[in-house]
Amino acid sequence: MENNRIVGPGFVFAGLVFFLVCGFTQAKDPTANANLSPFQQWRSAYDCLQNTSNLCPGIYELTEGGWVNVSRNQTDDYCKNGCFDHTKWVITCVYYCKRDYVFRNGATIKDINYTVANGCLHGFNGTTYISSSGKILWSKSMAFITIAATWILYKSM
């Protein structure tokens, strides 16, 4: 009976230490996890944005703000020295972790992708392209109109 009092808390303590150690491990590849909970999606997307490259100086790295900090005279340096490729990798990583990720400035992954690709083709102008939400509003209103018209036709029969 006396041994049970010592062994029981020992197992609990060992289990607690095991789970704490497992909880503090760093994920090496944020995209390695499938079917993540919403919190884990945000965390993995954040881990993607924290990825740095030796080829890309800190001023060019994409952050949670969504602003691509490249001017017109820095375009060649950004596009040809590895920053473009690194940014595309980060965008892809974020997309795989959380497809509906929206940066602080309201830009989506698609917007940043367009900004970077268009900037390397035609030169950056210091702004980030942000798509209008009118397309979303239009699609939702068209769905409502279609449902309403169907309901009216059904009631008139």
From TrEMBL:
The keyword tRNA processing belongs to this UniProt entry's keyword annotation: no
Residues annotated as signal peptide: 1-27
The DUF7731 domain, residue ranges: 38-123
Keyword S-adenosyl-L-methionine attributed: no
Keywords: Membrane, Signal, Transmembrane, Transmembrane helix
Membrane-spanning residues: 136-154
Protein name: DUF7731 domain-containing protein
Organism: Amborella trichopoda
